[in-house]
């Protein structure tokens, strides 16, 4: 499930999977589909995931989809899986953004987010509880992405295209500051006391990943932007940290 969230975060969808137990542990093979410009970021995220001990991407044609071979994780570490991404096929923007989300429920909520903005957290907490567990992260991401695009067009869209550092400083930081207590540290945004990431509960960081990406995707010279939560208050960290790259 953790690796599945990584796949969804990087705009890919699962076509097929196979999990094989052996004397050394678990070997997980994934066949994925997604946009080419997010493949390298996905490979890095999977290869550096704390539950992945070895990683290899092996591509071969299979029924029209390029597949991947998976690594092996030792049996001495339970719940550890090894994963590999397939060579992604081109996909429309709507696929990676909505994959796995409760789109209908998010769409119904969006007018309320716009009406009450920036007092949106009660709606997001309600969304958290309303959607099925397997749709939770993708739904929060979709809500964040749509909200970020809306805020960008409302408040920032008349400016010139920016580099990553300027886009974070001039757009992402001030927009996020209107919602939460935030600090900028180079290409990271540190959120303190996030209402969606209370200790002992599931992380709500997927909303902010989508929100920041939505803010920046049309503002930058490079049209691809990726946001990853590297630490979360819900898991005991002092603050939530979002790393931004392109």
Give the secondary structure arrangement, pairings included:
Layout: H1 2-9, E1 13-22, E2 25-33, H2 39-47, E3 60-62, E4 65-67, E5 72-74, H3 94-98, H4 103-116, H5 121-130, H6 136-155, H7 164-177, E6 181-185, E7 188-192, H8 205-216, E8 226-231, E9 240-245
Antiparallel strand pairs: 1-2, 2-5, 3-4, 6-7, 7-9, 8-9
Report on the architecture of this protein.
37% of the residues lie in helices and 20% in strands. The two termini are 25 Å apart. The strands form 3 sheets. Strands 6-7-9-8 form a 4-stranded antiparallel beta sheet, with helices on one face. Strands 1-2-5 form a 3-stranded antiparallel beta sheet, with helices on one face. It has 8 helices and 9 strands. About 15% of the residues have low confidence. It is globular. It has 246 residues and is of the alpha+beta class.
């Amino acid at each position: 499930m953790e690796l599945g969230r990584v796949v969804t975060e990087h705009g890919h969808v699962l076509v097929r999977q196979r999990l094989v137990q052996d004397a050394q542990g678990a070997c997980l093979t994934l066949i994925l589909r997604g946009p080419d410009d997010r493949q390298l970021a996905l490979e890095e995220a999977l290869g550096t995931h704390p539950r992945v001990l070895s990683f290899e991407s092996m591509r071969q044609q299979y029924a029209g989809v390029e597949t991947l071979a998976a690594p092996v994780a030792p049996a001495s570490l339970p719940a550890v899986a090894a994963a590999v991404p397939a060579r992604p096929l081109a996909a429309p923007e709507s696929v990676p953004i909505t994959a796995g989300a409760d789109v209908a429920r998010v769409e119904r909520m969006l007018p309320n987010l716009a009406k009450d903005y920036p007092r949106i957290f009660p709606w997001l907490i309600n969304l958290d509880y309303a959607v099925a567990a397997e749709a939770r992260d993708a739904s929060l991401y979709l809500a964040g992405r749509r909200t970020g695009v809306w805020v960008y067009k409302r408040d920032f869209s008349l400016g010139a295209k920016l580099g990553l550092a300027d886009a974070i400083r001039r757009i992402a930081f001030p927009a996020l500051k209107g919602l939460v207590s935030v600090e900028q540290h180079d290409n990271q945004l540190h959120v303190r006391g996030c209402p969606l990431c209370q200790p002992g509960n599931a992380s709500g960081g997927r909303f902010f990943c989508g929100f920041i990406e939505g803010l920046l995707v049309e503002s930058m010279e490079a049209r691809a932007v990726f946001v990853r939560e590297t630490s979360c208050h819900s898991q005991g960290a002092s603050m939530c940290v979002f790393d931004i790259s392109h």
